[in-house]
Amino acid sequence: MSASATFDDVLAAARRLDGVAIRTPLLENARVNARLGGRLFIKAECLQRTGSFKLRGAYNFLASMSETDRKKGVVGWSSGNHAQGLAEAARLMGVKATIVMPKDAPALKIANTKASGAEVVLHDRVKESREEIGMGIAQKTGATVVPPYDHPWILTGQGTAGLELVEQAKVLGVMLDAVAAPCSGGGLSTGIALAVKGLSPSTSVHAGEPAGFDDLARSLASGTKQKNDKLSGSICDALLAPTPGDVTFPIAKQLLGPGLVVTDDEVLDAMETAFREFKLVVEPGGAVALAAALTGKLPVKDRAVAVVCSGGNVDHATFARALARRAA
Amino acid sequence: MSASATFDDVLAAARRLDGVAIRTPLLENARVNARLGGRLFIKAECLQRTGSFKLRGAYNFLASMSETDRKKGVVGWSSGNHAQGLAEAARLMGVKATIVMPKDAPALKIANTKASGAEVVLHDRVKESREEIGMGIAQKTGATVVPPYDHPWILTGQGTAGLELVEQAKVLGVMLDAVAAPCSGGGLSTGIALAVKGLSPSTSVHAGEPAGFDDLARSLASGTKQKNDKLSGSICDALLAPTPGDVTFPIAKQLLGPGLVVTDDEVLDAMETAFREFKLVVEPGGAVALAAALTGKLPVKDRAVAVVCSGGNVDHATFARALARRAA
């Protein structure tokens, strides 16, 4: 498959999402800037509908389908942000959605997905393959499978957040030296790269990953797709895709700078800073790019840098762990 | 003193604050709307510079002073959001600020105020009057006292948040039935009322207060200024002013609907909802209007209602108490 997404596709996605996706704010903090010796901006996608950027790609996908296909519905599998984004996008467009979720997914996530009007099919994580169940539903009903990241319609939808952040920085008179976004399969980071490079070619774009799940960073360094050794074991539950996508990796190779890798403790510290200084609730996976900037792995000194905080769907116990990193 | 502030003054304040105050987002949540049977919007002033709306009034005050007066500096007293807002406004305008703070104020708040470049004068809460110390500094240096709420320049600055929220609702095609904001001395609620009534006369505007500190609600009901019995004892540390202001009360009488009074437990529940559904960090005093909407004291059913979440400067322990109201 060729690198089939362009800057113009991101612009088209932005027109589809106009009035649907929230134009999330670009925030900065004088104290954090003083500490880092530069200007750090947060694109607060945790404030997006459904609590993450995932609505952008899902809605762009549904809006790009033919009317005939939309009538047959959509199907997806996810235990997290993609499920909620897809279910809400389907509700907004009046499309029937079926989401395959593991039986042992948090009750709140299942309830949230149902609350958007989606049909939820529960599966046994150990005995059954959710892909097979989802594909079976698609074959039987004619529904279209909406993948979480590896599709041009998905990644160009996510990229609209990148258009916004460059425009919002420009209003402030700021030319960004670097932009970074969290990365699992690469939909967000490659979409953002298309958008940012289209508007501001000299800005470097980076993907952030949790330590031990840095398949993209290693793939970029080696030039070929690498796999993670593990499928679980990071606090960043949204960023555990095993390897870069077939659609996303060619774009990543062309447009992304070196990857940024952060530890779980650095992520918890970044969540605490987001709480204390920016008044934002950021989930672990949503905070990896911020963590890279705060630790100096993505240098901010004498520069202007924007990081995407991509989601805020964190449970109470995990957020309490982040709060405990620093007493007030 | 006459009710000396007008809608036009709010418009003038908005011009001064353009590019300085963050145009904070107006957020809604499909699940919360479904539960309440209407549309509830949050104006997220917790995302404002310094973590509260206070920057708006302080900056408008400084920008309205004569150049001669600005050169002599400003002085204020506060242990909370006004101190941080005033210090940051002074930094942005290059004005010398002196803030009188209690010796036993949280170290973080003192550090934050100093970080904006303000001179902090510590006083003994029991033995010394901060007003006397502040007035003494003003007399000695010629500095201008910047009051926390009871001045036309302050309340019209705060009112710019009301202009924004009506405009932001209009973009969504929404005419608001009601708007509510937290209230201590009434600067925010009366400024918002001037703005909202100027743009949308049929929208009712309400002030929210903590139980036991509902001086404005009782003053509005009786028609004359009432006092609170206590000076402390609510989790809403930002909302403990003992009585409505001389400038704010005449405007409140003219423009505000009945007051809204909520308990500390209702406030903690609202903070938890802001965390879980809106991904916002809201401090107790900042959540009273939201609490009124979530409990039905401010009806949302079959209506469109906007509440201001006015600040996010909450310590870790208090936020953990809010999280503990509901396990994930």
From TrEMBL, chains A, B:
<dbReference type="InterPro" id="IPR001926">
    <property type="entry name" value="TrpB-like_PALP"/>
</dbReference>
<keyword id="KW-0460">Magnesium</keyword>
<dbReference type="InterPro" id="IPR036052">
    <property type="entry name" value="TrpB-like_PALP_sf"/>
</dbReference>
<comment type="similarity">
    <text>Belongs to the serine/threonine dehydratase family.</text>
</comment>
<dbReference type="GO" id="GO:0030378">
    <property type="term" value="F:serine racemase activity"/>
</dbReference>
<dbReference type="GO" id="GO:0005524">
    <property type="term" value="F:ATP binding"/>
</dbReference>
<keyword id="KW-0456">Lyase</keyword>
<dbReference type="GO" id="GO:0018114">
    <property type="term" value="F:threonine racemase activity"/>
</dbReference>
<feature type="domain" description="Tryptophan synthase beta chain-like PALP">
    <location>
        <begin position="22"/>
        <end position="309"/>
    </location>
</feature>
<dbReference type="Pfam" id="PF00291">
    <property type="entry name" value="PALP"/>
</dbReference>
<dbReference type="GO" id="GO:0070179">
    <property type="term" value="P:D-serine biosynthetic process"/>
</dbReference>
<dbReference type="GO" id="GO:0000287">
    <property type="term" value="F:magnesium ion binding"/>
</dbReference>
<keyword id="KW-0663">Pyridoxal phosphate</keyword>
<dbReference type="InterPro" id="IPR000634">
    <property type="entry name" value="Ser/Thr_deHydtase_PyrdxlP-BS"/>
</dbReference>
<protein>
    <submittedName>
        <fullName>Serine/threonine dehydratase</fullName>
    </submittedName>
</protein>
<dbReference type="GO" id="GO:0030170">
    <property type="term" value="F:pyridoxal phosphate binding"/>
</dbReference>
<dbReference type="GO" id="GO:0003941">
    <property type="term" value="F:L-serine ammonia-lyase activity"/>
</dbReference>
